[in-house]
Amino acid sequence: MAVAWLIWPIVLSLTALSANSITESESLLKFKKSLNNTKSLDSWTPESEPCGASQRWIGLLCNKNSVFGLQIEQMGLSGKVDVAPLKDLPSLRTISIMNNSFSGDIPEFNRLTALKSLYISGNRFSGNIPSDYFETMVSLKKAWLSNNHFSGLIPISLATTLPNLIELRLENNQFIGSIPNFTQTTLAIVDLSNNQLTGEIPPGLLKFDAKTFAGNSGLCGAKLSTPCPQPKNSTASITIEGTMKDANKSKYFLAFSTLGVLLIVVLVSLAFRKKKKKRRRKKARRTSEQDNSDDQQIQVTVEGSNSSRQSRSSRSGELNKGVAGTSDLVMVNKEKGVFRLSDLMKAAAHVLGNPGGGSNRPRSSGGVGSAYKAVLSNGVTVVVKRVTVMNQVSVDVFDKEIRKLGSLQHKNVLTPLAYHFRQDEKLLVFEFVPNLNLLHRLHGDHEEFQLDWPSRLKIIQGIARGMWYLHRELGFLNLPHGNLKSSNIFLAEDGEPLISEFGLQKLINPDAQSQSLVAFKSPEADRDGTVSAKSDVFSFGVVVLEILTGKFPSQYAGLNRAGGANLVEWLGSALEQGGWMDLLHPMVVTAAAEDKIMEEEIENVLRIGVRCTREDPDQRPNMTEVVDELTIEDSNDDFITIET
């Protein structure tokens, strides 16, 4: 009996704990009740599971059957956002309620202390945000509060208590007062435009462009055209009479006379210097013209070859032909410094060939032009892409499109640095990535370049993140990338992939698109000539299958050319029959055999690749879904969302 009395309190406490616990389904349904106009959330029912194997609830992102993301965007939702039920979602790390009709004060999202991303842009939230609102959200990396009606001061806790903050978007609100000094070194994206901010731009934000602060007439500083007023020094007024006053008058007269003489000397000196500089510029122009007409200035060799494929003079003449008759380069990204066309013309240039591959290895056909590697005098190495398949767009249209590409910022995207415009052909300048591209790492003959499974998974995840970013930022294009293939993916020193040659469909001659862009090898393009963002998804799937198998896809070069295999049909059929493991690269097979978790990862990635390459574009996932499905537990990658 004594033992029973000892056990009974424990049983009661366990019963109470069970009664107080709440499932994810119950928590989300309670949250739904606080919202209005919830027809778009009809899939949220007690009879189903939020992360069900057959059908997950709309607006949720799941990881191992647990909700880690709430993405209910553009659904016409309104009402009061009740944050309390969301505290019972232990894995919740990101929330996006963007572009709905929520109003009132900012909800109590700061009760969710493990949140990494908060997207509430495009609603009708208003009022002041408490200065200490973000103090408990130390894990927060992304905060999008733009396009609301917030007023008052920018919360100081945004600048002082968020050590990992990466993105901050407060534009198109009614914030007033001075900007706090953000000292986080992690900050990569900031937008404070179109508010009512005043005062000087703090030192911590001086690295950002002037457009970050546009639309705030009261702001001043070095980044803007409005200088900050100098503080006035107030001094006591002393009345001096008699001889002392006369003496001071004499001193003032002498001082002003001396200043006047010095001013005349300075003006004369400046006039002489200006004239001398003008003569120097004329001389430099003459020298530059001589350099441009001299074929021997550019030393061109073929990268990866013992002998030049063309004579030095003929190849240098070809490059000169591409830049003649225009003034200079137009810089669209100054992260690697500023350089001019004359710097390129004087640099030693190498034609980029097929390093590590050999003539008997497959090469990815197509592309938008030949490429040259050039080492500038300041030590920066660049790749100059000479493009001849561009259509006859005006310089204004071309400039707008390339500047948009140059403004992109993502660790998995290689943006252009500069361009040179000429009606019949153009030059695009990129940063040179010293490592081999993915094509040569997968199909080259070098054993030391073999990729293990963790490296391959990292590359696939990085490509997916980069493609999602391009689909978000270039969503106005019907084909945001258009030319995704392994030869256009470079590998940084840390193994992260860098996607290149994107966003050019609008500029390429329609007659050349089918030959130049691999997206036109998708089934729908082959069937009726149509392409879309889902054609990019198809190309991504082909790259995934190429990484898994190590086989060269026929989609790059035409059926059976250079040993190409139709990976899509090949692996899709094998997956249905259960014999897919035998078709994978030996490094991948070894990983699956040694580790059960890796085997599950590999099968998951394979299924994603096959889904992305389905015949019907509507049956392919979008890139947001792909990134979601590739997300693994404890990943450092944040949830992603789309703002319209």
UniProtKB/TrEMBL annotation:
Mind telling me which residue stretches traverse the membrane in this protein?
252-272
One Gene Ontology molecular-function label: protein serine/threonine kinase activity
| Cellular compartment(s) | Membrane
**Composition-biased stretches (Low complexity):** 305-316
Identify the residues that the record assigns to the Protein kinase domain, covering every copy. Answer: 357-640
**Superkingdom of the source?**
Eukaryota
Provide the alphabetized UniProt keywords: Kinase, Leucine-rich repeat, Membrane, Receptor, Repeat, Signal, Transferase, Transmembrane, Transmembrane helix
The answer to keyword Secreted applying to this record is no
A cellular component annotation (GO) from this entry: plasma membrane
Q: Where along the chain is composition biased (Polar residues)?
A: 295-304
Q: Which PROSITE patterns match?
A: PROTEIN_KINASE_DOM
Q: Where is this region: Disordered?
A: 277-321
The record's listing under Pfam families reads: LRR_1, LRRNT_2, PK_Tyr_Ser-Thr
InterPro entries attached to this UniProt entry:
Kinase-like_dom_sf, Leu-rich_rpt, LRR_dom_sf, LRR_N_plant-typ, PRK1-6/SRF4-like, Prot_kinase_dom, Ser-Thr/Tyr_kinase_cat_dom
Q: Which residues form the signal peptide?
A: 1-21
The protein's name in its UniProt record? Leucine-rich repeat protein kinase family protein
Q: Which organism is it from?
A: Arabidopsis thaliana (Mouse-ear cress)
